[in-house]
Amino acid sequence: MKIIELNKETKQNILEDLLKRSPNQYDEYAGVVSDILKDVKNRKDQALFDYTLRFDKAEITKDTIRVTEEEIEEAYKEVDPTLIEVIRKAIHNIETYHSKQKQYSWFDTTENGTILGQKITPISAVGVYVPGGKAAYPSSVLMNVIPAKVAGVSRIAMTTPPGKDGKVTPGTLVAAKEAGVTEIYKVGGAQAIAALAYGTESITKVDKIVGPGNIYVALAKKAVYGHVSIDSIAGPSEILVLADETANPRYVAADLLSQAEHDELASAILITNSKELAEKVSQEVDRFTSMLSRKEIIQKSLDNYGYLMVAQNMNEAIEAANEIASEHLEIITKDPFMVMTKIKNAGAIFIGEYSSEPLGDYMAGPNHILPTNGTAKFFSPLSVDDFVKKSSIISYSREALEPIYQDIVKFANSESLTAHANSIAVRFE
Q1: Domain ends where: 207, 230, 253?
Q2: Which residue from 89, 217, 222, 396 puts its CA 20 to 30 A from 231's CA?
Q3: H or E stretch at 393
Q4: 158-186 burial by CB neighbour count: b if 16+ within 10 A, else e?
Q5: 262 labelled as ligand-binding?
Q6: Residue 226 and residue 244 in one domain
Q7: What is the pLDDT of residues 304-360, one digit of tens each?
Q8: Is the model's pTM score more than 0.85?
Q9: Geometric angle at alpha carbon 360, from 87 and 251, rounded to 5°
Q10: Looking at the structure, do residues 6 and 148 belong to the same domain, yes or no?
Q11: Which positions are annotated as active-site residues?
């Protein structure tokens, strides 16, 4: 991996390089996506069948587009029972964590008859997109579905592309069943997003779409936003490790590679105040990479978006980490909790040498659907909040309104909204 000195220029270059990976940079695909969305909106099911045959080489019909209970039972037979137990353990931890995020309606009252409050209502119907093939991750099914269940969403429709045999990956089906998905459809790509957003004969429209996907899925979600809600436009995975001379270079190297193996656009960055650590990490990265199954993907990722940055001191390193605003941030220093208090921008923060990023991917409980490409400066991890709506509650008695009604009339008239003013004044004629 490249070892470079951290300064204003190198930091800016890295920020610019990372932004190139954003789905917002791929507008040349937008025309294709727009055509697919329009086609599904007009031809509905038939468009889904045609695109599935064209892109996934699978033939589906109105009788086979929805996964049956028999297919789910078959999937259970194909998945290792010990893995099913692991999935159930993960579900327990994820449910426990997200249950603490749940908000409740509240009301404040006064003696003169004022009632103000906030009403929390779950979204009625949510669509979850799940990639297929090599990118089929049961863990992401859990992370998308469980917060919705905790929030109280009653209908969770999942779409995922089938294999050439017309079947869905068994692990995906088991995870969906265990997590509480109510219906599963064999359709992927931008056409699946269109079906969830607009509805077809077989798939009823939802109110919000969540879940990761390829560039076509990301651009489709971007295009339907406003017609339905979405979670975010997810970019490639990324990890940033903040470490000092006390860090174990083998641990740091292993953690960097845990994200580099996702795809060629993934980013892995170490920022340290120790050049000696950076050199040792570079050696360990080379040693690990030669042994790992996805070494070609890892190498391309590291060549394009892998950096070992040496800062003058830890404060400079922390400042750079806040500007990069990484999806995953690991802190492996002498006093990691002190460093954590200075972090302003990160999707998920992993503290200490035994809190490696895969712990968060699978088992700890916090969500692994996180903001990427610097959006941790203003976005948060997927949570129960993403699956509820908040309504304001306002109730005034005549006695409560009378002391302030003239103030409201004056305010409304100052904005030339005389009908607003009259709406209040008429009650005191």
Answers
A1: 230
A2: 89
A3: strand 388-396
A4: bbbbbeeebbbbbbbbbbbbbbbbebbbb
A5: yes
A6: no
A7: 999 999 999 999 999 999 999 999 999 999 999 999 999 999 999 999 999 999 999
A8: yes
A9: 120
A10: no
A11: 327-328
